Automatic annotation (TrEMBL):
It is an enzyme of class 4 (lyase). InterPro entries: Aldolase_TIM, BATS_dom, rSAM, rSAM_sf, ThiH, ThiH/NoCL/HydG-like. Its cofactor is [4Fe-4S] cluster. It comes from the Bacteria. GO terms for molecular function: 2-iminoacetate synthase activity; 4 iron, 4 sulfur cluster binding; iron ion binding. The gene is thiH. Its EC number is 4.1.99.19. Keywords: 4Fe-4S, Iron, Iron-sulfur, Lyase, Metal-binding, S-adenosyl-L-methionine. It holds the Pfam family Radical_SAM. It comes from Bianquea renquensis. Residues 69-292 form the Radical SAM core domain. This is 2-iminoacetate synthase ThiH.
Length: 368
C-alpha cells in the first residue's frame, strides 16, 4: 500500500537526528545541485549554525537564478475574527476576551478599494476559523468583490473540503495558505485545546485538497516556537516538497512565522527561535527548494525583513493590519497578533528599490 505524505513526513520528522551532523555534512550539502532530505537536515542542524555566511551566498545565487531581482508585494485583509478553536498561541482563540467583528459586503468593498489605491494587486483574505460566522458563501462573496480590484487572491481560512475549495476557486481565489503550526502530533494536541482544528490529519491534507479543487498554489509551514523548531522546519519542508512532487504544476511556497504577543498575552515568545535560527531555516529552505516562494511577514522587525528579502525571501507584505478591516475605517475587531513592521506599501516599495530589487505587483496573467 502506498505511504501517504502524512506518514512519510511524520516518520522522517521522528527519525531525524540533528546532533549527528558535522561541518563536513554541511559543506557537502552546499556543494550539491539537488539536495536530499538528509542534506536539508544537515543545513538545519546545529552543525550548520556557524556557516550562515556560506549558506547565505548559496541561497542568494539560487534566489537570483529562479526569481531574478523580483519581489512580490501583498497585504492581508482580515474580514472576520470569530474563531471556534482554542489555540493557546493566537489572539483570536475562542477563550480570549477580545472585540470580535465581521465586515459586511459594503465594508469589504471599502477596505479593498482603499487597499487597491496603494497600488497592490495581490490580496490575502483571512478569517478566524468559524464556519458559522464566516461560511463558505461569505468568503466566496468577499473573493468576488476582491476580484474587482486585485489580480491575485489568496485565502487563509479554515481547512475545507475539495468541493468548497473548488467553489472559492470558481469565485476567483487562486492561492490557499494553511499552517500546520507544529508537526509534533502530541504537541499539536497540547496547543490546540478545543475545536475542529484538533483534527491534525484534516489540516495536514488541506493544501492537497485545495490543489485538487483547482487552486493554482498553496503555502504552508510551521509556526516556529511551538515545538522543536528544527524538526518542525524539516517536516514543513518535506510536506511542501512532497506535495510539489505530486503536483508539479502547483506553485508551492513557504511562510516561516514565529510566535508573537497578542492581546491578553504579552509573553507569547518564540522561545529558542531567535533571528539567527530563523535565518538558518530560511536559507536551508531556499537551498533545498530553490524554486519555492518564501514569504516574510510583519511578525519580523523591519531590519530582518530587509535583510532576508532578495537573499532567500521572495514575497513581502506591506501596509499590514491584523485587526478586522482597519485599512479604511476603524478596525471592527481586535488584532490576531502584534506586528513588528508597520511600514506602508510605498515604504516597502522604496526599500526594495534602494536595495536594487524590483517590486512586483502582478506576476500572473489569467487567460480570458
Ligand atoms: S490560529 Fe487560527 S484557528 Fe487558532 S485561534 Fe487563531 S484564528 Fe483561530
Amino acid at each position: 500500500m502506498e505511504t501517504t505524505i502524512l506518514e512519510q513526513v511524520t516518520a522522517a520528522r521522528d527519525a531525524v537526528d540533528f546532533s549527528a551532523f558535522t561541518s563536513h555534512d554541511v559543506f557537502c550539502a552546499l556543494e550539491k545541485q539537488t539536495l536530499t532530505p538528509v542534506d536539508l537536515a544537515a543545513l538545519l542542524s546545529p552543525a550548520a549554525a556557524p556557516y550562515l555566511e556560506p549558506m547565505a551566498q548559496r541561497a542568494k545565487v539560487l534566489t537570483a537564478t529562479h526569481f531574478g531581482n523580483s519581489v512580490g508585494l501583498y497585504t492581508p485583509l482580515y474580514i472576520a475574527n470569530f474563531c471556534v478553536n482554542h489555540c493557546v498561541y493566537c489572539g483570536f482563540n475562542c477563550k480570549n476576551q477580545i472585540h470580535r467583528g465581521k465586515l459586511t459586503e459594503e465594508e469589504i468593498d471599502h477596505e479593498l478599494s482603499a487597499i487597491a489605491k496603494t497600488g497592490l494587486k495581490e490580496i490575502l483574505l483571512l478569517t478566524g476559523e468559524s464556519k458559522s460566522q464566516s461560511n463558505v458563501a461569505y468568503i466566496g462573496r468577499a473573493v468576488e468583490i476582491a476580484k474587482e480590484y486585485f489580480t491575485a487572491i489568496g485565502i487563509e481560512v479554515y481547512p475545507m473540503d475539495v468541493e468548497e475549495y473548488a467553489y472559492l476557486h470558481e469565485k476567483g481565489a487562486d492561492f490557499v495558505s494553511v499552517y500546520q503550526e507544529t508537526y509534533d502530533q502530541t504537541r499539536y494536541q497540547e496547543v490546540h485545546l478545543a475545536g475542529p482544528k484538533r483534527n491534525f490529519a484534516y489540516r495536514f491534507n488541506a493544501q492537497e485538497r485545495a490543489l485538487q479543487g483547482g487552486m493554482r498554489g498553496v503555502c504552508g509551514g510551521a509556526l516556529l516556537g511551538l515545538g522543536d523548531f528544527r524538526r518542525d522546519a524539516y517536516a514543513g519542508a518535506l510536506h511542501m516538497s512532497l506535495l510539489q512532487k505530486r503536483y508539479p504544476h502547483a506553485e508551492v511556497s513557504f511562510s516561516v512565522p514565529r510566535l508573537r504577543p497578542y492581546k491578553n498575552n504579552a509573553d507569547n515568545s518564540p522561545n529558542d527561535v531567535h533571528e539567527p535560527q530563523l535565518l538558518q531555516i530560511m536559507l536551508a529552505l531556499r537551498i533545498y527548494m530553490p524554486f519555492a516562494g518564501i514569504n516574510i511577514s510583519t511578525r519580523e522587525r523591519a531590519g530582518f525583513r530587509d535583510h532576508v528579502i532578495g537573499l532567500c525571501a521572495t514575497k513581502i507584505s506591506a501596509g499590514v493590519k491584523t485587526g478586522v478591516g482597519g485599512h479604511e475605517e476603524e478596525a471592527k475587531g481586535d488584532e490576531q497578533f502584534q506586528i513588528s513592521d508597520p511600514r506602508s506599501v510605498s515604504d516597502i516599495h522604496a526599500m526594495l528599490l534602494q536595495r536594487g530589487l524590483q517590486p512586483v505587483y502582478t506576476d500572473y496573467l489569467y487567460g480570458t
